[in-house]
């Protein structure tokens, strides 16, 4: 299971989600770009800037809730520690 954070090209919004297949979920987000009925589509938030693996769904959901409760400043610091340049992460080439 994964907890992940997406942003938009101007880094003005963050989307936090959970999935058991990160590559598939990122593809799904990219296909919904511009879909006004969904948060990620409305705000074009389909750039992966952070992810972490969790042992199971229960822990992943708990971590997602924890992160969603954080201030934007604290989320930004978490992302910067993991991905200092906030470059969109390509799972095929990411070395961490």
List the helices and strands and how they pair.
Elements: E1 2-7, E2 14-19, H1 22-31, H2 39-42, E3 47-53, H3 57-68, H4 72-82
Antiparallel strand pairs: 1-2, 1-3
Organism: Hymenobacter metallilatus
InterPro entries: GIY-YIG_endonuc (IPR000305), GIY-YIG_endonuc_sf (IPR035901), UPF0213_domain (IPR050190)
Protein name: GIY-YIG nuclease family protein
Task: Walk me through this protein's architecture.
There is one protein chain. By secondary structure, this protein is of the alpha+beta class. The chain has a single domain (2-82), classed as GIY-YIG endonuclease (3-Layer(aba) Sandwich), CATH 3.40.1440.10. It has 4 helices and 3 strands. It has helices at residues 22-31, 39-42, 57-68, 72-82; strands at residues 2-7, 14-19, 47-53. A 3-stranded antiparallel sheet has the order 2-1-3, sandwiched between helices. A hairpin with a 6-residue loop joins β1 (2-7) and β2 (14-19). The model has no long low-confidence stretch (mean pLDDT 91).
Question: Number of folding domains?
Answer: 1
**CATH-derived architecture:** 3-Layer(aba) Sandwich
CATH class: Alpha Beta
Helical content stands at 25-40%
Task: Note the main sheet.
Answer: 3 strands, antiparallel
CATH third-level topology: GIY-YIG endonuclease
Number of helices: 4
Q: Which regions are unreliable across 5 or more consecutive residues at pLDDT < 50?
A: none
Strand order of the largest sheet: 2-1-3
| First and last CA, distance | 18 Å
What structural category do the secondary elements indicate? alpha+beta
Which descriptor suits the 3D outline? Answer: globular
The arrangement of helices and strands along the chain is EEHHEHH
Rg (CA only): 13 Å
Number of E-type strands: 3
Going by CATH, the homologous superfamily would be GIY-YIG endonuclease
Bin the strand percentage. Answer: 15-25%
Integer average pLDDT: 91
Domain GIY-YIG: 1-77
InterPro entries: GIY-YIG_endonuc (IPR000305), GIY-YIG_endonuc_sf (IPR035901), UPF0213_domain (IPR050190)
Organism: Hymenobacter metallilatus
Protein name: GIY-YIG nuclease family protein
């Amino acid at each position: 299971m994964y907890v992940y954070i997406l942003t938009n090209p101007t880094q003005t919004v963050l989307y936090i989600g959970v999935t058991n297949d990160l590559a598939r979920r990122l593809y799904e987000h990219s296909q919904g770009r511009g879909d006004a009925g969904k948060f990620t589509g409305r705000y074009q938030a389909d750039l992966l800037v952070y992810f972490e693996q969790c042992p199971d769904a229960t822990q992943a959901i708990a971590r997602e809730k924890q992160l969603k409760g954080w201030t934007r400043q604290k989320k930004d610091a978490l992302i910067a520690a993991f991905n200092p340049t906030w470059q969109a992460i390509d799972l095929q080439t990411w070395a961490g």
